[in-house]
Amino acid sequence: MAAVSERNCCLEVLDVRPVIAKGEHPLAEVMTIAQALEPNGVLELIAPFEPRPLMARLRDAGCEVTSQHQPDGTWLVRAGKDHLAPLEELTLLPAPEPLERVLEASARLLPGAVFTAHLPRNPALLTPHLEARGLRWKVAERPDGTAVVWVKR
Fold first, then answer.
1. Is residue 53 within 8 Å of residue 30, measured between CB atoms?
2. What mean pLDDT do residues 110-126 have?
3. pTM over 0.90
4. Does domain 11-152 have CATH number 3.40.50.720?
């Protein structure tokens, strides 16, 4: 199965800092993405502050929402339809351990279940293994060069 290529279907990372720095509001774009999410899809929003009113709008739209203050001072807001799969943090593990962990977790997924992980970089060596196993997947890079992988059985 090929990589999921439809925009906003299952995983989208959106850095709203440049939009806010221009004095604009990202509400319309965020809500468009959130509304296009499939069940178990994830929107990751990177913001310069915790956007509580926006988080409330996402909840009103039927999303489960979490936020976390990041070491660089930004806020990571995660929103998902139906169930927001926890994000497994794998960025501090030495190679090839992050990729092995994703493959192990993917092998345990029940039909329809989702696994998400934060990786130290784009996992080019991982994606052929996910395809060979017939899994749906998408990788999204974050502005800091790390990546998030979304895998669904």
1. no
2. 94
3. no
4. no
